[in-house]
Amino acid sequence: MARACVKNRSVNNSCYVSTTEKGGPSEDKPPPAAAAGRRYRAGGASDWGDWHWQLRSRIRSIAGLKKRFPALRVPDGATNAAARFPLAVTPYYASLIHNLDSSDPIFSMCVPDGREVHDPPFLESDPLGEDGDMPVPGLVHRYSDRALFLATTMCAAYCRHCTRKRVAGLTEERVTGPRIAQATEYLSVHPEIKDVIISGGDPFTMPTAALERVIRAIRGVPSVDVIRIGTRTPVVLPMRITDELVAMLKQYHPIYVNLHFNHPNEVTPDAAAACEHLADAGIPLGNQTVLLRGVNDHAPLLADLFRRLVRVRVRPYYLFQCDLVRGVEHFRTPLSKGIEIMEYLRGRLSGLAIPTFVVDAPHGGGKIPILPNYVVSTSPTHTVLRNFAGEMVSYPEPRGEFDPMQPGTRVDDGVWGLACGMRNSMRKESI
Ligand code: SF4
């Protein structure tokens, strides 16, 4: 089971990519086709590469899962969870499942789990308070220079850890012309909004022409500089990144795209090709990973994910603490886990590959970056810092009135010596 497996895993152990011939992926190769998924894919249709077929053929029920994976033992309470929060998995994403149980990260992220219906009282359906910050329907305006436009409630696959479980997939609808007009009117009279994020749901599940209507309307507001699109389609439906879609997006630069990869097993050759297709169109790609217990709460695994992403031209942007949303308690990790992971990454990965670890504060409090504490002590003349290896170093501040080098200044050991500038560094062994 996932929890036991996570405790013992390493980058190359069987939990990571499960039962492959070589026992795990090398960092140079994308993970091979999954065992259970490979069998499923072998029986797949000739339309496999057609994103419309993938959407039409999504698994939408526990019975559908059982039909596709006859060996599946339905997890306890899964039917109740699916009744409360919708189930959808594309054939492509289902083909990435290695093991038909929660030891498999892809399985955990897309198959309902009975624990989703048991919430502690502090979880909320809208923990970020988005509904309260909508001046017009579908447009969230919280930060003065940014707005979020929810263009659809549909996703290709419904993530069990989704922050918008209150809306994603309960119905599958997209914005109408009057709603788009309301949003752009608001943007027009709020020229302080420079950056509009189109999200949902997943905007890339919309027909290209419908998505273009949204983008064109927003691009028509002169004060909007940047349009960002949040999508998980390169992860769960990479065939959606078609020439037609990319050609449309290119007309409305600057367009940025934020992706949502959570695990190295998601960085397949198909997903890599989708990312590179977007990058070739001059679209900067960022990634937002959610820290999920039993899925990716392991520093070497995340280091591997971030390396893989950089390789396919995706910049790790945020590592999110799982939000306080109903139905996700079993995925939540202590904050200290994220801090521990950030400690591990620093010094092992290039800064380019290290995301910012953030907590999206409850009740609309906004994103709060959380860092390991690298400042040990300060004095008027020196700041004592701790580096990634645990050594302490003394950083001299601009020379002010206080001069510790004056006659009579006491020379000392330890942190005080660093803080006075009497020592330059302390090795870990002597701390
Ligand atoms: S793709 Fe995004 S909005 Fe859709 S279910 Fe997953 S996390 Fe939620």
Explained architecture:
A nine-stranded mixed β-sheet has the order 1-2-3-4-5-6-7-8-9. The chain has a four-stranded antiparallel β-sheet with strand order 10-11-12-13. With 431 residues, it is of the alpha/beta class. It contains 16 helices and 13 strands. Mean pLDDT is 88; it is low at 1-33. The protein folds into three domains: 2-117, no CATH class; 131-369, Aldolase class I (TIM Barrel), CATH 3.20.20.70; 375-430, no CATH class.
Short description:
By secondary structure, the chain is of the alpha/beta class.
- Uncertain parts: 1-33
Calculate Rg over CA atoms.
Answer: 24 Å
Count of spatially separate domains:
3
Overall CATH class of the largest domain: Alpha Beta
Numbering strands along the chain, what is their spatial order in the largest sheet? 1-2-3-4-5-6-7-8-9
Strand content: 5-15%
How far do the termini sit from each other?
A: 41 Å
By CATH, the architecture of the largest domain is named Alpha-Beta Barrel
**CATH homologous superfamily of the largest domain?**
Aldolase class I
